[in-house]
Each structure stands twice: as C-alpha cells, then as structure tokens.
Specification:
single chain, alpha/beta, six-stranded parallel β-sheet, two-stranded antiparallel sheet, globular
Length: 262
C-alpha cells in the first residue's frame, strides 16, 4: 500500500500569527479607532502583536483577530483571551463596540486585501516558517517524490503556493489544496481514492477530530508547535492522536506510516 503524506500549512509549516495580528490591528483602526489609534508607538504595537501570538490558539477564524487585538489594546492579557475569548469575550466585545460580526469580517478582509494589493512582498514577509518542520517535509519529498506529498490549507492557494516557494518547498500546484477546496476529510478521501494510506499532520484539534470521525483509517498527528494548547494536546492523546514535537517529528511520521500496515 502506498502512503500519502498530507500537511496543513498555517501552524504546521508556516507561522502566520504575526501577519494575522497585524491585519487585525489594521482592521481594528476601522472598528475601534478610539482604541486602536494611529498614535500607537512601534514598541506598543510589538508588545500587542507578541501577546496576540501567545493567544493565537484561541482564534478559530481570521476575523476574530480584530477583536483579540482590541481586547489586548484595552489591557487584557493573552492568558485571559486563551481562557475566555471564545466562551464570553467575543460576544461581549461585539456588544460593547456596537458592531456586528459581518462588519468585523468586512473590515478584516478589506485590511488584509489592501495590504496585499499595496505591498505583496511586505505581506508575505510577515509570515515565518517552522524551519525544522520545513526541512522534514523537504526530506519526504526527496524520499517519496512529489507525487505522494500534499498541502491542505484554508489559505488562498495562490498565497500558499508563493509562501511554499519562499520556504523552498517544491510541490506541483495540483498538490496544494487551498481555500474553497472543501472539508479536509473530503480532500483526504479524494487524494487517496486509489486505496492509499494517509498520514495527516495538523495543528488544530477540531480538524483532526473531524477527520478521525470521517476517515478512521487515517494516521493523525497534532503538532505541539502550532496553534493549540496543552489541554488540547492531552485530549488528542486520549483520542489516540499522536502529539508530535519538532524534535520527534521525523520519527513520528515514520511511525505513523508504519502503523498503516499493522
């Protein structure tokens, strides 16, 4: 049985937290100009972005970054956001700001699009990479050829492809599934329609739980360097999902592939 290797992008190969936070700040200046003023010092902006990156695991969709940035500018801590953003803060912030989810989504979309249109290189440069993970992926491509390696992301394909190239990862465009490709479980089934086994690497536990439910034969890895928390990592272990660290990533991938044959 052949093995297909499928990787999420943000939080596995690419660290996009800084870009998301900066886009959130640009949008926050529209939603709450009295809080996210242009008068913020560079030092204060860096402090807030650093706190946002710590709180990134509680973000579920990009537009929420706007509210998280506003909360941090208002004095909340990254730990408070991790503990309470989804359960209470998000709704409370929308109410206190007198705005709506749609308005925040539009502001976030417009801020990011304006940045991309004005200076694509600057936007791409706001992304980082988990170099050890990138190196492992490059080794897989060399060992198993491009035909068995895929990237499945909620990022627009055109941008994911550019960032992969920036990281030196050479994959055919047909092996990059971006925004609009459908649920990841369905994509995994499509790329293994020939009966191949699949190893899927992701940083979001909710996604892995969905894949586990719809594709129970898949071998799943949750990466602990991505956008998740120790509590989610423990839950993953209870679900028999491998929690992988950068130091054990290559070994964990090999073990997952071997498990497909047991």
């Amino acid at each position: 049985m052949a093995v297909v290797w499928a990787f999420d992008f943000d939080g596995v190969l690419c660290d996009s937290a800084r870009e998301t936070g900066l886009s959130g700040l640009k949008a926050a200046r529209v939603i709450a100009p009295h809080i996210a003023t242009d008068g913020l010092t560079d030092e204060r902006i860096e402090q807030v972005i650093a706190e946002f990156c710590k709180a990134r695991p509680c973000l579920e969709t990009g537009w929420e970054a706007v509210l998280m940035i506003i909360a941090l500018l208002s004095g909340e801590t990254s730990q408070t956001l991790l503990d309470f953003f989804q359960s209470t803060f998000k709704v409370q912030l929308l109410g206190s700001l007198g705005t709506s989810e749609d308005a925040v989504k539009t502001a976030f979309h417009n801020a990011r699009t304006t940045w991309i249109d004005a200076n694509l290189e600057s936007w791409l440069g706001a992304h980082g990479f988990y170099q050890d993970a990138v190196d492992v992926l490059k080794e897989l491509i060399e060992q198993y050829t491009q035909s068995q390696v895929y990237v499945i992301t909620t990022k627009h394909k055109v941008f994911a492809t550019q960032l992969l190239e920036k990281a030196g990862i050479n994959l055919p465009q047909s092996h990059v599934y971006g925004l609009g490709s459908g649920p990841k479980a369905e994509v995994l089934k499509a790329i293994t329609s020939g009966g191949e086994g699949v190893v899927f690497v992701e940083d979001r536990l909710a996604t892995l739980k969905s894949v586990q439910q719809h594709y129970p034969t898949a071998q799943l890895l949750l990466v602990d360097w991505g956008y998740n928390t120790p509590v989610q990592q423990q839950e993953a272990r209870q679900l028999e999902i491998t929690v992988s660290s950068l130091g054990s990533f290559s070994t964990d991938l090999s073990s997952a592939a071997s498990a497909l044959f047991q």
